[in-house]
Amino acid sequence: MSHLDVRCSSIALLATEYLEDGLSERQRTSYETHLVYCDACVVFLDDIRELAARLRALPPDPVDAVERRAVLEAARR
Amino acid sequence: MSDLVGDGSEAAVAALVDEHHGAMSRFARLVGRDQPADDAVRRAWLAALARPDEQPEGTSVRGWLLALVIDELAPSPPPVDPPTIAPPADFEGAGRWSGWWKDELPATPEPDPELLERAVGSIPPSLAAMLVLRDVEGIGAVETALLTGQAPERQRVLLHHARAGVRTALRASREDRS
Fold this sequence. Notes:
The structure holds 2 protein chains of 2 kinds.
Chain A: H1 8-13, H2 15-19, H3 25-37, H4 39-56, H5 65-76
Chain B: H1 2-5, H2 10-32, H3 37-50, H4 61-72, H5 113-120, H6 125-136, H7 141-148, H8 152-177
């Protein structure tokens, strides 16, 4: 994929590729040029970026005492 | 992991459980859906503690434990119809501006954790697994490839469909409430 389709639907499709450095230098330039004049795509990209950050902040489940004991007992056998 | 288990003392195992059990439970709950999460997590612990020296090189303890939870959950088929990147109605369908956003896009409001988890639960399990490994746990692309066998390029595709599916679910839930 060397040529980048610069319609919004394609820009949105490639948001994670862009954020994870999966685009070639030329594609990246086309992508960022689109962002200069398309506020909606900037909003979409920010949504995806912020979603990843919010997911990272999700707390783990509390450790259930019964389950903890069950694992420790099983490990003892 | 064999270094951490050491001689198998209860203190060493308890420290491991305290560090990782909550994340394993969350993973099993978000990915396994209606399967009993506790059973899968317990079996994953037994597998890990029985052969701690089999942790693949290049993987973290957390990553390996989550991969063992995947092994214990019933396999989920690849999504037949992965979420679209955005509702098709958001884009112009025909004419000169086909494929461009129809309107200005309002930013998705910040969801509380419960709403966010519900949105993760709405996407296909195999996409949720990739999302939790990469975004929730922060496991890198190279390690995820070792754990799941998915090449980084394929991971990015799955991850993007997962993120977009969660975003769409969050927007839909906001519209339902308004």
